[in-house]
């Protein structure tokens, strides 16, 4: 593990078997959905790494597997110096204090029968963060202030029902920040919020990152918000990272054909830009059961050659810190196979 | 005479806690061959408004005032039977989330022919042929006519919904958040499709969305709604170039873009009001950076200025 890294993921795999009943599972080959397939990356200290992909590409499974909310099929996860996959339950609890998650649906993740203060209090108690009641209250108040639910008294006794979506998401973020984590995984934190409050939440995350020197993994389907907050972006397609580079490189010098298609699909908030056809064929296959050899993007790719169908393309560093998994484009770029 | 003329429409929901003024005094007119985008955040009343065009408003909601003229007829006055014939043939609607709007136990062919048989005196066999042609037109392929909805992807289901809505060649099509919840690539494919459909059959469309960037590429004119009111109407390029209402400005300013310079984005402070007791005066004033005293006391009306219609006291 390098010095400036906080998280390192190596060859992580998560396969879900598709149940077909006992009889079939004994007598035939098992079928799997390869939700996350051999994914490796690292998160540097103080950076925001974005994972962008369409639904079903495995980005949410990936985030849950890193926290071991889902057990990985194989692979290794290093957080600081700890190897996460081998921890027992108690060690895992301590670790989760440092590694936290913000969920997509702020309504579904807050207990409707607890007040805002109680929701935060529960976290404080589970992790024994405060010695006395006074200390506890001070900590909660301070956290509400951090997530800009001000004045804290106004929100103290409110139930989640009486909060707007943006306010609820702030409570969700508060519940994470109160633990002073080092790494936060935000899984589509704004996709269910109103447009006018989205930027407010992203700005809050950015400020928290600066102030508390957090590292963040930001999971989204939306390249434009990823551009707004991410330092680096990884593009995922059907369980694989196909390209990973700095945000500006991904947007201005995209290499993988899928990245290019994804970028040109983003609607421009500008009526002078005319709608154009996409450099992509067909649709995402409905299930990603492993029938495909070679590159997973091959059936939709406009540049595919025979080799793409036969061998899986490895990740190649085509430029400094710019990795891509594509035979054709990598060859054009560096002239090697 | 415009194809659709909405005058001072008011739709209120009468619930236990009081009266929710979901649509409050809204006027809009849609000409033939015109595509309107209605943009606003969730809860601003945009879906409730178009539900009234189809006369779908159900208790506790009630249309308490206003008129809706379609093709010269006041559709709030006609009989239920007349209205039933108008739906699908006159005005057609594609509902939000095709996933739930299709019947899971009927094949898509059956669901398309159902509409044809309702409106036209065709024998079943002819109706099936028409359904197949319609599917071809939607780029789905006629062999799918016997598929069930669960066998189709999200983008295809949305196209089937559009197929059902347009099979009887309506005069006006309403699309309620047609691309929300779809992946960007599928979303783009569907927008291209809607554009090509528009070019082929010259269908006026009312396009409801919360996403400004989606309407930028498809619509001619835009109405921006906030808390039950239309606050600004203008041509699409005008609105983007020169938004006049502070809410339109804020909405456009809060959109991240992947092209061009990375710009500083501003969020709009505060939250949309609860429509059960909306602020008196201008409904946007508690969040407005430019508000003055008069905004608090007096409700602004829509005024004409440089091709825009804006409801703001600051526009002189």
Please, could you describe this protein's structure?
The complex is a heterodimer of chains A (about 325) and B (about 325). With about 325 residues, chain A is of the alpha/beta class. Chain A has 13 helices and twelve strands. In chain A, the strands form two sheets. Chain A has an eight-stranded mixed β-sheet, with helices on both faces. Chain A has a four-stranded antiparallel β-sheet with strand order 2-1-4-5, with helices on one face. In chain A, helix 8 links the parallel strand 7 (about 185) and strand 8. In chain A, helix 4 crosses helix 5 (about 135-145). Chain A is globular and about 70 Å long. The two termini of chain A are about 30 Å apart. Chain B has helices spanning about 45-55, 80-85, 100, 110-120, 125-135, 155-165, 185-200, 210-215, 235-240, 245-255, 295; strands at about 5-15, 20-30, 35-40, 60-70, 75, 90-95, 170-175, 205-210, 220-225, 230-235, 305, 310. Chain B is globular and about 65 Å long. Chain B is an alpha/beta fold and about 325 residues long. In chain B, helix 4 (about 110-120) packs across helix 5 (about 125-135), helix 4 runs parallel beside helix 6 (about 155-165) and helix 6 (about 155-165) runs parallel beside helix 7. Chain B has a domain at about 235-315. In chain B, strands 6-7-8-3-9-10-12-11 form an eight-stranded mixed β-sheet, sandwiched between helices. Chain B has a four-stranded antiparallel β-sheet with strand order 2-1-4-5. The interface of A and B includes residues 166, 278 and 283 of A.
């Amino acid at each position: 593990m390098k010095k400036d890294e906080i998280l390192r993921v190596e060859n992580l795999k998560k396969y879900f078997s598709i149940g077909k009943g006992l009889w079939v599972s004994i007598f035939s080959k098992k079928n799997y959905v390869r939700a996350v397939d051999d994914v490796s990356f690292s998160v540097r200290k103080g950076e925001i790494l974005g994972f962008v992909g369409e639904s079903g590409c495995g980005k949410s499974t990936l985030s849950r597997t890193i926290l071991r909310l889902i057990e990985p099929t194989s692979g290794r996860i290093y957080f600081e110096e700890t190897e996460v996959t081998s921890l027992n339950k108690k060690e895992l609890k301590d670790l989760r204090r440092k590694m936290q998650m913000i969920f997509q649906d702020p309504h579904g993740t807050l207990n409707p029968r607890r007040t805002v203060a109680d929701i935060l209090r529960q976290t404080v108690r589970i992790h024994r963060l405060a010695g006395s009641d006074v200390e506890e209250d001070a900590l909660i108040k301070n956290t509400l202030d951090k997530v800009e639910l001000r004045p804290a008294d106004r929100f103290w006794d409110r139930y989640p029902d009486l909060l707007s979506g943006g306010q609820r998401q702030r409570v969700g973020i508060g519940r994470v920040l109160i633990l002073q984590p080092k790494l936060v995984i935000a899984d589509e934190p704004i996709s269910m919020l109103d447009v006018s409050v989205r930027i407010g939440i992203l700005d809050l995350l950015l400020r928290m990152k600066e102030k508390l020197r957090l590292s963040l993994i930001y999971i989204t389907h939306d390249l434009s918000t990823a551009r707004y907050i991410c330092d680096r972006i990884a593009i995922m397609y059907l369980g694989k990272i196909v390209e990973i580079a700095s945000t500006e490189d991904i947007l201005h010098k995209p290499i993988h054909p899928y990245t290019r298609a994804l970028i040109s699909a983003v609607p421009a908030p500008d009526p002078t830009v005319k709608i154009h056809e996409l450099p992509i064929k067909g649709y995402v296959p409905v299930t990603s059961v492993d029938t495909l050899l070679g590159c997973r993007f091959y059936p939709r790719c406009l540049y595919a050659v025979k080799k793409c169908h036969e061998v899986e393309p490895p990740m190649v560093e085509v430029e400094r810190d710019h990795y891509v998994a594509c035979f054709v484009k990598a060859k054009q770029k560096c002239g090697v196979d | 005479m415009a194809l659709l003329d909405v005058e001072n429409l008011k739709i209120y929901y009468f619930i236990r806690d009081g009266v929710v003024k979901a649509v409050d005094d809204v006027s809009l007119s849609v000409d033939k061959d015109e595509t309107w985008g209605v943009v606003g955040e969730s809860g601003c009343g945009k879906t409730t408004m178009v539900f009234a065009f189809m006369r779908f408003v159900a208790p506790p909601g009630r249309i308490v005032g206003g008129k809706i003229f379609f093709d010269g007829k006041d559709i709030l006055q006609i009989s239920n039977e007349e209205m039933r014939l108008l739906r699908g043939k006159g005005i057609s609607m594609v509902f939000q989330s095709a996933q739930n709007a299709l019947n899971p136990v009927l094949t898509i062919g059956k669901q398309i022919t159902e509409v044809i048989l309702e409106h036209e005196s065709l024998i079943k066999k002819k109706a099936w042929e028409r359904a197949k042609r319609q599917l071809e037109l939607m780029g789905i392929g006629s062999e799918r006519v016997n598929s069930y909805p669960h066998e189709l992807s999200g983008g295809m289901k949305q196209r089937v919904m559009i197929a059902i809505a347009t099979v009887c060649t309506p005069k006006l099509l309403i699309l309620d958040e047609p691309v929300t919840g779809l992946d960007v690539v599928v979303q783009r494919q569907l927008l291209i499709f809607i554009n090509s459909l528009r070019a082929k059959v010259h269908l006026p469309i009312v396009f409801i969305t919360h996403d400004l960037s989606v309407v930028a590429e498809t619509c001619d004119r835009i109405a921006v709604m906030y808390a039950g009111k239309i606050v600004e109407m203008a041509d699409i390029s005008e609105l983007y170039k020169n938004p006049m209402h502070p809410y339109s400005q804020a909405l456009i300013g809060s959109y991240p873009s992947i092209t061009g310079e990375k710009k500083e984005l501003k969020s709009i402070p505060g939250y949309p009001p609860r429509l059960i007791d909306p602020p008196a005066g201008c409904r946007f004033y508690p969040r407005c950076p430019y508000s003055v005293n008069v905004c608090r006391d007096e409700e602004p009306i829509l005024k004409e200025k440089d091709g825009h219609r804006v409801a703001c006291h600051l526009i002189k």
